[in-house]
Design goal:
Blueprint: H1 3-19, H2 24-33, H3 40-55, H4 57-66, H5 73-84, H6 89-95, H7 102-111, H8 123-126, H9 131-141, H10 145-151, E1 158-162, H11 169-178, E2 184-185, E3 192-195, H12 205-209, E4 212-214, H13 217-226, E5 233-236, H14 243-251, E6 257-262, H15 265-277, E7 283-287, H16 294-298, E8 303-309, H17 333-347, E9 351-361, H18 370-379, E10 383-385, H19 388-391, E11 402-404, H20 406-409, E12 414-421
Parallel strand pairs: 5-6, 5-8, 6-7, 8-9
Antiparallel strand pairs: 1-3, 1-4, 2-3, 9-12, 10-12, 11-12
The structure holds S-adenosylmethionine.
């Protein structure tokens, strides 16, 4: 691609991402599937620019409205070229795929030479924090609020989890090094591998063969804390497309019974496909009508381990999905919290006496995490908190709950509490 045709494609992609109600990663996958002629190098460069623009969305919007421009994809791309790539008006005019209007040229001329951040920007704009999450995040992070928000604006490394049913971590590391890729074992997750450099996923044949999966270290640790053992009966209550189901089934080495439940049938179908590819066949997928589906009542006390990876605000995923912060949770925070409490109370019935319940979210908000667990324990005296270090000694220093954040731990934001049902 010439620089100009690449910019035209970026503008098309950005326009689609901004107009579609779906997450940016889903839109980009569909975009490139429909344009197989775009090679890996161009695709990588396009994604880099797209994600840089998404990470600066509020600040670019602030500059546009200061110049009296509407916040459109075209305006944002022009502002990015001037502020982020520091291109002058002549360069932008040469590169841009369509002629610049007088207003476009005026915009680029006005912005050229300025930094992306400006002293007059309100803090939520400078930190790219949406209004709906401002107060809960300030409460959660206190003096660390700005630093934690800044950490969500740094591109994350590529995290992989090895599928122990097909290979070992050492073997996978050797394979990556033979491909000339820098890869290191993760500090905390025993099956994790981190690739610090940006690479094309096409370079990883293990993804196709099911030997490795893409999974953030925090998500791997949540699955690890379930400690599902071969031969046990386990439920993944909010299994979705199966990120953690795959990890649990692999821990069980294909022995025992794992039920992957969700209210969303399409996600469970995707989960079943991924399980097949990974060579995991001890899993039953089950569509629930709601968290109080009759199936739950019929299987009261029937499972050794239950994982609830609850629907949540997703505030822990902003580093990987920078566009997610601009989509307020569909339900609103308080309805989401009420749903989490209902799911927790209902799914807890599945745990046998002496069994383990893990409540997890990819949120960093206290309301969805510690407060939710405290309310559950107060209402369910038959359950007790198992301190993290007792379940997995390498995490002892983290306190009673797993509470990960991008700044403090270099992972996505994840929460997990381990609860045991008294025998
Ligand atoms: C955070 S996502 C799960 C992600 C998944 N565990 C993974 O690791 O890929 C939460 C899931 O909860 C499901 N969910 C929402 N409401 C539910 C309910 N009432 N009962 C069970 N699952 C529900 C959603 O469909 C969604 O797939």
């Amino acid at each position: 691609m010439t620089p100009s045709s690449r910019l035209a494609a970026i503008l098309d992609l950005l326009t689609e991402v901004e107009s579609a109600p779906r997450p940016a990663d889903a839109v980009t996958s569909a975009f490139f599937r429909a344009r197989r002629h775009i090679d890996d190098q161009d695709r990588g460069a396009m994604l880099e620019t797209l994600y840089a623009i998404l990470r600066h969305r509020a600040r670019l919007g602030w500059w546009l409205s200061r110049q009296g421009r509407a916040e459109t994809a075209r305006g944002r791309l022009l502002a990015w070229l001037a502020l982020g790539e520091r291109k002058g008006p002549d360069q932008v005019a040469r590169l841009f795929p369509t002629p610049l209007s007088a207003a476009d040229s005026a915009l680029v001329t006005a912005l050229h030479g300025s930094a992306l951040d400006h002293a007059e920007m309100p803090e939520p704009v400078r930190l790219e924090c949406p209004d709906w999450a401002l107060e809960p995040l300030r409460r959660r992070f206190g003096a660390d609020f700005a630093a934690e928000m800044a950490a969500t604006l740094v591109a994350p490394p590529l995290d992989l989890r090895v599928n122990p049913v097909k290979t070992s971590r050492d073997q996978a590391l050797r394979g990556l090094s033979r491909l000339g890729l820098r890869a290191e074992p993760m500090a905390l997750s025993p099956l994790g591998i981190r690739l610090p450099d940006r690479i094309s996923l096409a370079l990883l044949p293990g993804l196709k063969s099911g030997e490795i999966e893409i999974q953030d270290e925090g998500s791997q640790l949540v699955a690890h804390l379930v400690e599902a053992k071969p031969g046990e009966r386990v439920v993944d209550f909010c299994a979705g497309a199966g990120g953690k189901t795959l990890a649990l089934a692999a821990q069980m080495q294909n022995r025992g019974h794992l039920v992957a439940c969700d209210v969303n049938e399409a996600r469970l179908k995707r989960c079943a496909e991924r399980l097949r590819k990974a060579g995991l066949h001890n899993v039953e997928t089950r569509v629930l009508a709601s968290e109080t589906d009759k199936w739950v009542k019929r299987h009261k006390g029937g499972y050794d381990r239950v994982l609830i990876d609850a629907p949540c605000s997703g505030t822990g995923t902003w580093r990987r999905n920078p566009d997610a912060r601009w989509r307020a949770p569909d339900l609103g925070l308080s309805a989401l919290m009420a749903l989490q409490a209902r799911i927790l109370a209902s799914a807890a019935r599945l745990v046998r006496p002496g069994g383990r319940l893990v409540y997890a979210t990819c949120s960093v908000l206290v309301e969805e995490n510690e407060a939710q667990v405290a309310a559950f324990l107060a209402a369910h005296p038959g359950f007790a908190l198992l301190p993290l270090g007792e379940a997995f000694p390498p995490l002892q220093a983290l306190g009673d709950h797993l509470s990960l954040t991008p700044k403090a731990h270099g992972t996505d934001g994840f929460f997990a509490a381990i609860l045991t049902r008294q025998a």
